[in-house]
Amino acid sequence: MNGKIKYEFTATVWQHSAPGGWYFVSLPEEMAKEIRNLLQSEEEGWGRLKATAQIDSTNWQTAIWFDSKKETYLLPLKAEIRKKETIEAQKTINVVLWL
Fold first, then answer.
1. Could you tell me the CA-to-CA distances from 87 to 17, 23, 27, 34, 95 in Å, in that order?
2. Is residue 6, in this structure, part of any structural domain at all?
């Protein structure tokens, strides 16, 4: 994978409250703190950090975004990925990230 550092975690999928809102998983707060300490200098606008993500057999190029209200990074889950891996809100999934 492109990224240098590998992170793995389990999280519950949630949907943003806006109509047609995006689906996300929030990274564990301790993991987010570590990532921010190590890689904040590589963030682009709005706390964006390029990443490669993997859920089950699907991996894709994406980014995680720092949410200052939640104090963690969010991984957006595109419809294509959710469909491929039958992911919906409230489902708990295993995620691998390379940053």
1. 17, 10, 17, 27, 12
2. no
